[in-house]
Write a structure and sequence with these properties.
The structure is a single chain. It is built from twelve helices and eleven strands. By secondary structure, it is an alpha+beta fold. It has three domains: 193 residues, Jelly Rolls, CATH 2.60.120; 63 residues, no CATH class; 62 residues, Orthogonal Bundle (Arc Repressor Mutant, subunit A). The strands form two sheets. It has a seven-stranded antiparallel sheet. A hairpin with an 8-residue loop joins strand 2 and strand 3. Helix 6 packs across helix 7.
Length: 336
């Protein structure tokens, strides 16, 4: 029901499976499915959990819009199509297979394309310290196999949480349900841990960068790296303009000097250099995909004038913006 019946991709086929029809998922462009006795929010947010505060299992599909009602560390992964996400870190567009992890005060706002389908998980603020895998802010891409696994684990966790809510003991607020030994509670928590463990595995490539962070303990290193990751996301989310170092310092609660030094030590480039690189990469996308004038492309990427944009583009790519556009168009004609 949540996939195009004509689609032949493994992910779309998995979404069309019958077991997804039982959870309460709300989408636009498709008739809403029956909800269990749980809270419901526009756009596809479903708050069900075997224990409070609730873990929110979210879905955004088919031009659906979602703004989670409560704060919490959130993880989002795109199954098909595209979804535009706006947060404190900036504007992002996620394509199939991409994932994005955001801090608790990021306040994400999501809008799916007509063919888009995104799943998400919003953890309660006190989720840390419960034996769950610790996730860090960041962005990446899953393989098709990992995406299928994430889909299966998400569906299983959401289903078990829904069953726990439907349990009569939960409806009567039985104290036994809050005990770890309660079967429904154990199953729901185990399913959540499996999903978080799979998502944490997508961040294993960060371990080398974490080791370069200052700090005497691994916990301190991860704290510093998490803030640096957020600064990096802020640069990625603001590729349309120049980002001031003071903005990053305020976001991370570090001094400008410490931020610049630590950022360079982790990513081997300064925040200013990263900003220029990201803006030029966006310029490449606009040159290849749009018919905007060269000067308009430069202005859309935060350059003061066409001359400064032309110099920066040529210095990085060893080719003019016009030549790059011509080669991109020629490549598209060959592929067509």
């Amino acid at each position: 029901m949540y996939a195009n019946p004509s689609s032949s991709s493994p992910v779309s086929a998995a979404l069309a499976g019958p077991t997804l029809a039982s959870p309460a998922l709300v989408t636009r462009g498709a008739p809403p499915l029956p909800l269990p006795p749980a809270r419901r929010a526009p756009g596809g947010e479903l708050s069900v959990s075997a224990a409070e505060p609730a873990v929110r299992w979210c879905v955004v599909a088919r031009s659906g819009h979602l703004r989670p009602a409560e704060r919490g560390f959130s993880v989002w992964f795109q199954l098909r199509g595209r979804t535009r996400l706006s947060a404190r870190e900036g504007q992002f567009t996620l394509g199939a297979g991409e994932w994005l992890a955001l801090e608790r005060d990021s306040a994400p706002d999501l809008l799916a394309d007509p063919d888009g389908l995104m799943l998400g998980l919003v953890l309660p603020p006190d989720a840390a310290g419960r034996g769950r895998p610790e996730l860090l802010p960041g962005r990446g891409r899953m393989t098709q196999r990992d995406l299928r696994i994430a889909l299966r684990l998400w569906r299983n966790g959401q289903r078990l949480s829904t069953l726990a809510v439907r349990d009569p003991a939960h409806a009567q607020a039985s104290p036994a349900l809050a005990q770890p030994a309660h079967p429904q509670h154990v199953q729901a928590q185990r399913a959540l841990q499996l999903l978080l463990g799979h998502l944490a595995a997508q961040q294993r490539s960060m371990e080398a960068a974490i080791a370069r962070c200052p700090g005497r303990s691994i916990r301190r290193k991860r704290q510093v790296f998490g803030r640096m990751q957020r600064a990096r996301l802020f640069l990625e989310g603001h590729r349309h303009r120049v980002v001031r170092l003071t903005e990053l310092a305020e976001l991370t609660s570090f001094s400008s000097w410490y931020l610049s030094k630590t950022f360079h030590g982790i990513y081997e480039e300064s925040p200013q250099a990263a900003s220029v690189r990201l803006r030029l990469e966006r310029a490449c996308e606009l040159l290849a995909q749009s018919d905007c004038a060269i000067g308009e492309v430069g202005a859309a990427c935060g350059f003061d004038n066409s001359c400064s944009f032309a110099r920066a583009f040529r210095a990085r790519f060893r080719v003019t913006a016009s030549a790059y556009r011509e080669s991109a168009r020629a490549a598209r004609r060959v592929l067509a």
